């Protein structure tokens, strides 16, 4: 049984008369193995799901825009995997480094 939580923070960025306000990202996931063959997992990306706030300031005006982009939206994932383990495991072969004459000279 595995639980995964991750948090990412980007602080405010200022670029001359423009700025991007702080952003927060929270991801969570859970995974469960059933024996050696079956695994089920579920995860959510960007639980907070807040738009990016961008602003600009000039003479006599201040603009603030909320930007929502596809890479920044909430995303759900479910996965199921099964390991068939078909066939036999590969056997490791011995590899000769050189002939016996060369080995005796060393």
**Over the alpha carbons, how many angstroms does the gyration radius reach?**
27 Å
Strand order of the largest sheet: 1-4-5-8
SS content category: mainly beta
Could you spell the SSE succession in H and E letters? Answer: EEEEEEEEH
Form type: elongated
Q: Round the mean pLDDT to the nearest integer and report it.
A: 86
What is the helix fraction of residues, given as a range?
under 10%
In DSSP terms (H or I, runs of 4 or more residues), the helix count works out at: 1
Question: How far do the termini sit from each other?
Answer: 53 Å
Number of domains: 1
Low-confidence stretches: none
Q: Give the tally of β-strands.
A: 8
Q: How is the biggest beta sheet arranged?
A: 4 strands, antiparallel
- Strand % is over 45%
